[in-house]
Specification:
The structure is a single chain. The protein has helices at about 5-65, 70-85, 95-105, 110-115, 120-150. Helix 1 runs antiparallel to helix 2 and helix 2 crosses helix 3. With about 150 residues, it is an all-alpha fold.
Length: about 150
């Protein structure tokens, strides 16, 4: 084999090795970056879940202390439990949050409430208060159980 051919093959091999090494380094960096992004996402989700659990606990304490309307508490707790532990909404005593939510979800809130006819709002408030009175004991009981529940 001529010497020039040997050198050409050696140089070709070195180039192939360099290209493969560069590819491997780039893949490792991509994997590391992906792992960092995944860890950040997991940390964010863990922090977000902890924040939701804390909000649920605060809402439960507010219900116990009668510092907020039960209907509003049910809407908020149901929304948070949907993300944290939705299976609780099917179990007693927590099912009351889902029940009250289903009974009042059609009622206007926030801006829609302000834009709705006053008589209709008064009618809805009366209906909401009746629902709250009907379910008040169960809502308080569920709030106490929720505060003690490990989420």
């Amino acid at each position: 084999m001529p010497q020039w051919l040997q050198w050409a093959l050696i140089i070709g091999g070195v180039i192939a090795i360099a290209l493969l090494a560069g590819f491997i380094v780039r893949q490792l960096r991509t994997l590391q970056a992906s792992k960092r992004r995944q860890e950040k996402t997991e940390a964010f989700q863990k922090q977000r879940r902890a924040s939701m659990v804390e909000s649920i606990q605060v809402l439960a304490m507010a219900v116990e202390a009668e510092q907020m309307e039960y209907s509003e508490a049910c809407l908020r707790i149901k929304g948070l439990l949907d993300h944290v532990k939705p299976e609780l909404l099917e179990q007693p005593p927590f099912a009351v949050f889902q029940e009250v939510h289903d009974l009042i979800q059609h009622m206007p809130t926030h801006r829609a409430r302000q834009e709705t006819d006053t008589r209709f709002v008064e009618k809805m408030d009366k209906e909401r208060r009746a629902i709250e009175e009907t379910h008040a004991g169960r809502i308080r009981e569920a709030a106490v159980a929720l505060r003690e529940q490990a989420l």
